[in-house]
Amino acid sequence: MKKINISSLTLSIVPITIGIVLLLAACKQNRDKSAVKTDSTTTVTEVTDTSSAKQAVPGPDTTVKITESYARQVAKDALFWAWPMENIYNRRLAFKQAPHAGLMNGVLPFAPLNTLSMLHDYIQPEQRWVACPNQDVVYGAAIAALDETPVVVQVPDFGNRFWVYQVVDLRTDAFAQLGKMYGTKPGFYLLVGPNWKGDVPKGITKVFRSKTGTAFVVPRVFQDDTPEDKAAIQKVISSINVYALDKFDGKTKTQDWSKLPTLGSPTKDNSTAETKWVFPDKFFDLLPIVLKDAPPLPGEEARYAQVNALLAAARKNPALKKAMIDEAIKAEKELVDPLLQFRNWGIQLANHWSTGNNTAAFGTDYFTRTAMAKSNILVNVGVETKYFYQDLDSAGARLNGGNRYAVTFAKGQTPPVNGFWSLTLYDEFHFFVPNTIKRYSLGTKNKTLIYNSDGSLTIYVQASAPANRDNWLPAPKGNFSLYLRAYWPKDVVVNGSWTPPAVVKVK
């Protein structure tokens, strides 16, 4: 066996070992230079070149010539996602023309900006400004120009009566919580715009800040369908008010809303469908103002830059703008108009009902926001109201006044609410159709509903009167829709454990 020279092997390993030690020492020295010492703990920090991280990401080059097909694509997308914002802003422009608080055409609250107008009874079936109205509450309406002034919102003592103030921004997203479900106390509340930095006067209970310069305030106060309650509610609603901050003196301002004058309409109101609020041929003229009113949400900066670059190009190129308008007209017809029908969108539930979970909290959910703006704009947030929509019977056929239907809630299975519920009928345009008994909904407000012997409740939906007229919801000729509201819904409604019963066609 060959002998190994241990001494020579050891000598050959020494240089390698020394090299490794030196290398480890150098690494330790580098780590020590990068370490931040706090007390007895050493934290290693990563060294990053931040010179480029602080630079803004380049946006569109507005000097570049763009193609018509690209302009059409951006225009089409802009029409869809900004449709609800232009809808609300054009309402602001209409309210700006009101000479004073009154009733538009004698049926709808109408007032100058930063001023409230209030009904004193249920809304009348003739109005066409807002689709899917209800006859469960007494409505009010005010549009606040928060880019001009903060506004004060008065909340009286409602006692045990259900109430909620819907307060939404230009995107129809809610930003103030005022209602019975929030335990809101009587007092004065202040709405301010995104950039307001003034002093809050003494006597203001709470401040709510909008993300946009425009806000829509819609008080809703529950009223029983009885002469006694219609009289009793008058004193309560007389202390509901909205006004500019410079009018605030710490004293409650009251008004007899039953004495409002009739005002003319500044719009071309339709006798069947909702008044038109978005105009594709003028859409891009108004869009810069709308985008300024509603600064981009986090993540929308690139979208805004893209659209603003297109608008700049259109100002220099009439042919390009013409193509954009043409595309906007087509987009409204092909993309937006079909959303009027409830069956075309929403979260699909049993028995062909549908709903939405992010009402008045849309954020960047552009599809749902536009769908609701087209079909039933100004919806409350989910904890305030849960909405269920129906176009079809249990067999999937379109609801039509030529048939008779029954909606039966099993014993103890009427909508679980802390507030109230109602089942409302609308025509194909989502408005009331006048009928001989002037009834457009049934629910908590109705004190004469008759329950079946087993404790269930059946509502009869048909054109002719059934034997049980107290439970009759008159249907019009042609197609119609049903709409169930659950105000201040219980958890089983919010989480989807409870859904409405089928609409059954009967012989």
From TrEMBL:
Database matches in InterPro entries: DUF1214, DUF1214_C_sf, DUF1254, DUF1254_sf
Keywords: Membrane, Transmembrane, Transmembrane helix
Membrane-spanning segments: 6-27
Domain spans labelled DUF1214: 385-490
Pfam families assigned to the protein according to its UniProt record, in alphabetical order: DUF1214, DUF1254
The keyword Transmembrane appears for this protein: yes
Keyword Aminoacyl-tRNA synthetase included in the entry's annotation: no
Limits of the DUF1254 domain: 114-243
Protein name according to UniProt: DUF1254 domain-containing protein
